[in-house]
Amino acid sequence: MEFMGGNSQLLSKLAASDQHGENSPYFDGWKAYENDPFHPTANPNGVIQMGLAENQLSFDLIKEWIKKNPLASICTSEGVKAFKDIAIFQDYHGLQEFRNAVAKFMGKVRGGRVTFDPDRIVMAGGATGANELIMFCLADPGDAFLVPSPYYPAFDRDLSWRTRVKLLPVACESSNNFKITIQALKEAYENARKANIKVKGIIIANPSNPLGTTMDRETLRSLVTFINEKEIHLVCDEIYAATIFCAPKFVSVSEVVEEVKCNRDLIHIVYSLSKDMGLPGFRVGIVYSYNDKVVNCGRKMSSFGLVSSQTQHLLASMLADEEFVDTFLAESSKRLGNRHKIFTRGLEEVGIKCLDSNAGLYCWMDLRPLLNEPTFEGEMALWRVIINDVRLNVSPGSSFHCVEPGWFRVCFANMDDETLGISLQRIRLLVGKWKEMGAQVKNNGRKKTLKLNFSSRIYDAAVLSPHMMSPHSPIPHSPIVRART
Ligand SMILES: Cc1ncc(COP(=O)(O)O)c(C=O)c1O
Prior knowledge:
The chain is an alpha/beta fold. It has helices at residues 13-16, 25-35, 59-68, 83-88, 96-109, 126-138, 155-161, 182-194, 217-230, 253-259, 292-301, 309-320, 322-349, 376-390, 417-444, 479-484; strands at residues 48-49, 121-125, 144-149, 166-171, 199-205, 233-237, 267-272, 284-289, 353-354, 362-366, 392-393, 395-396, 407-411. The strands form 3 sheets. A 7-stranded mixed sheet has the order 2-8-7-6-5-3-4, with helices on both faces. A 4-stranded antiparallel sheet has the order 9-10-13-12. It is globular, with a radius of gyration of 23 Å. It binds pyridoxal-5'-phosphate. Pyridoxal-5'-phosphate binds at residues 53, 126-128, 152, 205, 209, 237, 239, 272, 274, 280, 285. Belongs to the class-I pyridoxal-phosphate-dependent aminotransferase family. One of its GO terms (molecular function) is transaminase activity. It comes from Olea europaea subsp. europaea.
C-alpha cells in the first residue's frame, strides 16, 4: 500500500493535496543535487548546488566568537551553570535578553537609522514560520495577498498551503528591471475585486529574492500610500537586509513609516537570521508588527514554532556584543561583494549578463540568448541541459513565477572559491558549446537543440518523484520513504 497518494482517504485533504508548491523545478533541482552531490575529489562530476541561498562566507567569524565566549553556551564547563534555567524555561514571549539583542541587531542592520521595540518582537521558526504566522493573523482562507513576481518559490507553501490564503502575482518585467509599478498593483487589485476576491494585503521581499535588488525609497513610499488608501496590509520580508554589498543602500519599511503619514497597524516586518548571519539551521524567525493586536495574537500562535531557548541564550550574548556585530556585518558584506564581483565578471567574460544587483546571495542570470525558443518549454529544455549535462543546480525563472522565459537564479555564497571556479568553468563550456552550435547552424542552416555531453551520467528520473528533498521537507529522511527510494 502506498504511504501517500494510493489511498488518500487515510490522510487529511490538506496533507493529500499537492498545494505545498514543492512540485516545482526549484525543489527538483535540490533533489538532483542530493542524488549526486559534487565533491572535489570524491565526486568531481557531481552536481554543484547553486540553487540554495545560503550565506556560508563568514562562518569563521562566528566560530571564533563562540570559542572566545564559552560562557554564552550552556554546553561548556564555563556556561553549564545556566543549563537548568535555560532547559526548563520556554515562554512564548522569548527571553527578554534575546528580544533586546535582536531588536538592537535589527536596528544596526538598518544602519542605525531606526530603532525597534523588543516588546514587538514575536518569534517563529525561521522566516518560513514567520511568514505563515503573519498570514494566519491577517487573512482568512480564500482571501488574497498581492505579491510582485518573480518571487521566492516557497512563498506558495509558506503563505498559502496551510492558511488557504491566495497569492496573486503582480507581474514585473525586465523592461524596467523588474520594478513594481503602482499601475500594475492597481490593476491586480481591481482584477481581484472584479473576481470577488478579497485582497487583504501586499507582501514583498525587500531585498528581493530572486532579483538581488532593493526597493527604492520612492517606490516603498508609494506602496505604503497605496495600502493606506485601500486599508490593506503591507508585509515586508526583510530577510536579506544585511546582504547589501554595494550602493544603493537598503531602505527598510521601518524608515518609511517614520516619514509617511500612515496607519501603522497595517505594517508588518518579517525577519530571520538565516541569511544575514548565515544561520538557517537555528530557525530564528521574527515577526515585527506595529499592530498591537497582531503582536498579541502572533505570540499565541508562535507557541507552534518557538526558537529553542538554548539558541536564544547563545544569540542573546552574541548579538549584544556590539563590537562583534559591527565587525561581522562589515566583513560579511565585503565578502559577499567580492564573491558577487568574481562571479558576475566570470559570467561577463563569456557574454552572460545578470540583472544589476546590490544585495542577496544570488544573481538573476539572463540566459535568454541561449534558449532554443523564447518559451517556458525552451527554458525547461535549457534547465535540463544545465542540470543533467553541465551539472549545476540553478533555478529556472518559471519557478519564481517570472513572466519572461530565460531568466535563472544562481546562488554564489554557499560554496568555497574553488567550487565557484569550477562552476564558472562549466558555464564557460556550456556557452562554448552553444557558440559552436551557432556556427554550425550558420553553415548548414539547420536549427539544433543544445545538448552537451560533459559526463556520462544522466538525470535521474527519481528527481521528478513526488518525494522531493528540500531543507524544509522532512519526507526523504523518513525511514519508510528511504526504504522505497
Ligand atoms: C524571501 C525569503 N523569505 C523566507 C525564507 C525562509 O527563510 P528561513 O530559513 O528563515 O525560514 C527565504 C529563504 O530562502 C527567503 O528567501
